[in-house]
Specification:
With about 220 residues, this protein is α+β, with helices and mostly antiparallel strands. It contains 6 helices and 10 strands; from the N terminus they run ααααββββββββββαα. A 6-stranded antiparallel β-sheet has the order 1-2-3-10-5-8. Helix 3 crosses helix 4. The two termini are about 35 Å apart. Bound molecules: 2-acetamido-2-deoxy-beta-D-glucopyranose (NAG). 2-acetamido-2-deoxy-beta-D-glucopyranose (NAG) binds next to loops. It comes from Curvularia kusanoi. GO terms for molecular function: isomerase activity. Its main location: endoplasmic reticulum. Its EC number is 5.-.-.-.
């Protein structure tokens, strides 16, 4: 037991030092930019309005042309429970330093954003998202309508809500693997939906490893 703990401690120590060493070079590892994704989301809404299926196809087709080896064209929708909120996601890209998904629900949800090791850009494709971060004098919600981007900075935390149907293109850049704990916690302590957990792991793992094999960290 003591040996196992020592081993786990050593691995954690190594990973943490590796993270600190790579930190200054993170920028060079990214293939997507917030600017490109904001523009693409806004173009897609201009072209297809509230036909969200067409908006999503427009975005994915465009990204596949620009980044042919790093985009998952299979629309594999999977339930996602995290921070008390429930919705579904389609994983477009997953690697060690970035993920890009369509996340949303047709009936609304509410929860905790999670405190993450990555910056999160939430491009509202349909509907509206509300957010709240407590502070002196803050009594009104942040409102993110269709076409806007909610940037949740690395380390920040908020309460969020989608009152009705709402779908977004969510882009995270930073350290993705630690975020997976947040993505899995609700399965173990609430839903016990292991088939969904398995599918999430298979698709995320397949995309991350597929990207790694092509040199995309
Ligand atoms: C989508 O539908 C909402 C609600 O009906 C409307 O307010 C909004 O303007 C529509 N958006 C577009 C881009 O057509």
């Amino acid at each position: 037991m003591a040996r196992l703990l020592l081993f786990l401690g050593a691995i954690l120590g190594l990973l943490t030092s590796a993270m600190y060493m790579v930190e200054p070079y993170l920028e060079q590892l990214y293939i997507f930019t917030p600017r490109e994704l904001a523009q693409l989301s806004s173009d897609a809404i201009s072209a297809h309005g509230n036909d969200t299926a067409a908006v999503v196809s427009y975005i994915v087709d465009n990204l596949a042309k620009k980044h042919p080896d790093h985009v998952n064209l299979e629309e594999e929708w999977i339930f996602n429970n995290a921070g008390g909120a429930m919705g579904a996601m389609y994983i477009i890209h997953a690697s060690i330093t970035e993920y890009l998904i369509v996340f949303g629900t047709a009936i609304g949800t509410e929860g905790h954003t999670g405190r993450h090791t990555a910056d999160d850009y939430f491009h509202i494709l349909k509907g509206e998202q509300l957010a709240y971060a407590p502070g002196k004098g803050v009594y009104a919600p942040e409102v993110y309508p269709q076409g806007s981007v909610h940037h949740l900075r690395r380390g920040d935390v908020k309460q969020y809500k989608m009152d009705k149907d709402c779908f977004a293109l969510e882009y995270a850049r930073g350290w993705i693997p630690p975020m997976l704990f947040f993505g899995y916690a609700d399965t173990f302590f609430s839903t016990l939906d292991f088939p969904t957990l398995w599918r999430t792991t298979v698709v995320t793992g397949r995309e991350m490893i597929g990207n790694l094999l092509q040199g995309k960290v």
